[in-house]
Structure formats: C-alpha cells, structure tokens
Amino acid sequence: MKEYFSYGVRLGCSFPSVTLLGKKSDWADILQRVAWFGTIDHEDAVSLALRLRKVLEYIVASFDRPDDEDIRQFWRRAVHENAGDTSGAIVTLSGWLTAFCWWGADGKKTQKYSDQELSFLRVLTLDGVKFPVIRRDSVPTGVVKVPISLYGESEEKMVTLLAGSMGMQVIKEDDETIAQPASGWWMLSASKQFTQDITNTGKRPLLLH
C-alpha cells in the first residue's frame, strides 16, 4: 500500500498528571478575589475577570472530581502552539494560559487577533467563554525588579530587588520526574564590598525601606 499512500505521525504532549499546591479553600479564596475585578467599570478588567474566573472554577473543581472528562480536557487545553507552514510565519499561542497574559510588562494590553484573523487558528472556548490567541513572543516575563534603598551601619545603598518566577524546578520522586515553577528573589548591588558586608553575620540586621 505504501506505493499509493504517504504516512505521517503528529507528536504532541500533555500533562501526565497535575498536583495543585495548597488546599481547595485557597483556590476558592483566589476565585472570590478575582470576581471583584468584574465589578470594576472598565471593559478590560471585566473581560479579564471573566476568563480568570472560568480558569479558577475548573481548578477548584479539580479537587472534587479530578477524573471527570471535562476536568481532564481542561488541563489538556492549557496551551496550544500554532505556526504557519511558511518561513518566518508568526507563532501563536491559544488555550487558557493566555488569560494570564492580558497585559505586557510595559503595562499595555497584549495584542490579540481579530475574529477574521482567527479564521485559520485554533481558539479555545470554555463554557461559552472565548480565550484570546496571542503571539508567542507576547508572553510577559514573570520577573519584576524595583530599585530600593537599603540602610546599613552608617550609609545608604541603592540596590535592585529582583523577584518572580525564575524557571522550573525538577524533582525526582520514586520513579517519577516532577516539574514545578521555581520562585525566588535576589538583591543585586553593583558594589562587591557592600555585597560582602550584608552577608557578614557580625553586622546588625539591615532595615529594608
């Protein structure tokens, strides 16, 4: 038969399993807080709240009925990447992950594609709620930095506080490999001497203002 047909296999991936940190009540509390955004008289805030609520509703439901098919489908639809077949084609992302990419690092709304542009792209809809399709390079960074004044023995130093989601932590557990986001923070200073000073246990605690 191979003289008459061509054969191909499309590879894909999903989460083998998902472990939610915290308790159901923690996520339910976040859901309640997010609902408040929907009360703000601003179109973008209302649209964002609608999508975040839908994601959180499924996350909360995951505690009660993790094996239900709609819950499994929800986790499979976290993100989908699509790229054209031509050289230099734009790579887009869809799925409920895009609800967390509503604004960029510059505070501007992330560019989303119109219904006409979406005619050839896969769009996720959960219970009637449509999630945006964005460019892959529009995903905002998960790290923030702020300048702060740090007061030591008798002098003030300007340092930069860097915090956020820095990468992935890989954990070996029995015969499984577990990956989870790794969060952290760093205090950066251009002064090597000052860096040595703040790690000297003989110094009194520094005050952060």
From TrEMBL:
Protein name: Uncharacterized protein
Alphabetized Pfam families for the sequence: DUF4419
